[in-house]
Structure prediction request, 178 residues.
Amino acid sequence: SEHRAQAKPYFEYATRWALVNAEKALLSFLDNFPSAPTRQLMKLITVTYSPKMKKINDDLVRELAHQAQLNTHIKRQLTHLVKPVPGDGNDINQQAYLAKIACLPLLAKVKKGLKQGYFKSGVRFSETLDRARAAKIITEGEHKQLLDYNLKRERAIRVDEFDFDMQLVDDRAALKIA
Prediction:
């Protein structure tokens, strides 16, 4: 089923991680026996001489990362206990994530317009969006939606900013939306 396909990367990563770490713990436990004959006997009994578990590879990490970027039923089910508090880091990241998911087709339009040479990219992403609107690649409404996404994205990736008196600069000043 579709839900199984969505859950597969999470399941494979979690089980592989658990098995690799269980094997590592067992090997550490066996290596910790002070007497060499006892150590060898325990390894013989458990048939555990060296790591044999298949490690987590880059393909598995990439597959999980891809699945985790999608707003799927399984992801919502896995994260339903995470309750974002308005304004906290998790909420800021969640807002940026949902805005990006909603903008994926628009971002593809902008990218295609750039690739086909209908307009040139700007120094800042907002300039690129202005040029895409001027070239009629995106509508006024799509431009507004992409600017909103960009604002949320910038807010999610920024670090805390301080003024010269080491006071935390508030969000409105930091985002220049006063």
